[in-house]
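Illustration: Histidine phosphatase family protein.
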Amino acid sequence: MPIYLIRHGQSEFNAVARDGIDALIYDAPLTELGRAQADRAKEIVRDFGIRQVITSPLTRAIQTALRIFEGQAPIGVQAGHHEMLCNSCDVGRHRDALAQDFPQLDFAHLPDRWWHDGPENRHGVAHEPLEVFQQRVRRFDQVLRESKTRPLAIVGHGLFFQEMIGRMPDNAEVIRYELP
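Result:
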């Protein structure tokens, strides 16, 4: 049975970021276009029989997961497949702040700081080293191998999925993923 990878819809950061300049939009939410992209993805996955959804704790992924799957399949939050910390949009928020914004989801299992912890630049961004990121991707791949729930949907992020499948998915793209 398949696993479906779904990149979040367009975020406010995606909409304005250009030429590697950090737009300083922390934990960026979806734009109107991002919400529409998630609505289109909902139509695509409607008949897939998804039994479980795992979303990253970054706001744009949570909003995408809720827009596609709320009321259709159980949604769990896991930190293992959050985006590589490169920009302000990848800086997470404490589980209490997330629980306040998304009371229908459980965040109690998340550590206080679930995103990369390291030396921060002047904007409070602790760039995640590539090797640390790649190890995290491998650990998440192992979690998927051990999971028996199928069909399963993973709502996550571009660089993370690119590391897994070798290409950058479009916003709200649905990709059928077979474990190698």
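Reading the tokens back as a structure: The two ends are 13 Å apart (CA to CA).
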